Amino acid sequence: MKPVNQDHTAQFYDKAFTWIIEKGPNILIGILALAIGLWLIKVFSRWIKNRLYKKDVDPSVKPFFISLSVAVLRILLVFTVMQFIGIQMTVFAALIGALGVAAGLALSGTLQNFASGVLILMLKPFRVGDNIIAQGQEGTVTDIEIFYTTVTTFDNRTVVVPNGKLSNEVIINISKKGSRRLDIELKFSYGIDYDQLLKLTNETINNSLNILKDKEYRIGISVLEESGYKVMISVWLNSHGFNDAKLIFQERLLRAYKDGGIPLPGITPK
């Protein structure tokens, strides 16, 4: 085994010591700046969040703006720390250029989600608080973030949908208009008197508090068949709480027919 060259070892330690003396303070300053910067960004995030929620700002914009601001500040902080440490930006720029194509391909979906998030906030097909049907899910929009939108379903499941999916596919906003129409089709035999049926239905609608009285409802015979006729009942309900109001109205309608002595051979709700 060859003996270690004492001169080379001494030179190595001398260079390492010199590097620590020259770069050590900058590295310590960089670490300190990173810690302080992250803390200041956290404080700023809380401050801007409180300010936005106190102001009359669109709820859809608030989480998006906060998350975007924090992301930009963190990137700027990293660049600043690199300057403290002494890393040349030209070297860093060359490294970014070399990895740019690969990173662009890897993050193409992420960038698409970002661009889609901006489009959603600009075009406003839905906002925070709207009830939507998207990607086979129905629920309330709770957050619109940079890359994804969070929907809470009516059975309290949290669904995270990438913004790219929402901007390129069909979205049904079921609460934007403020009201929805409920259509119920009922089948009766020809032995049931239609006038009595019409009277009971009108009374049930007028006595139901969940039915919107400022919109005209409709009752009529939709189909004539050999075994009987079908009656279509169309009423208007508030978009929010639609399902609850639907259940209550159908129960009242069923009780009204039962108390009035009208049998129901078949019910086809829509």
From TrEMBL:
Keywords of the record: Cell membrane, Membrane, Transmembrane, Transmembrane helix
Localization annotation: Cell membrane
A Pfam family hit: MS_channel_2nd
InterPro entries: LSM_dom_sf (IPR010920), MscS_archaea/bacteria_type (IPR045275), MscS_beta-dom_sf (IPR023408), MscS_channel_2nd (IPR006685), MscS_channel_C_sf (IPR011066), MscS_channel_CS (IPR006686), MscS_channel_TM-2 (IPR011014)
Keyword Zinc-finger: no
GO-annotated molecular function: mechanosensitive monoatomic ion channel activity
Annotated Gene Ontology cellular component terms: plasma membrane
Bilayer topology term: Multi-pass membrane protein
Residues of the Mechanosensitive ion channel MscS domain: 110-176
Transmembrane regions listed in the UniProt entry: 27-44, 64-85, 91-123
Keyword Transmembrane included in the entry's annotation: yes
Family, as annotated: Belongs to the MscS (TC 1.A.23) family.
UniProt protein name: Small conductance mechanosensitive channel
Originating species: Pedobacter cryoconitis
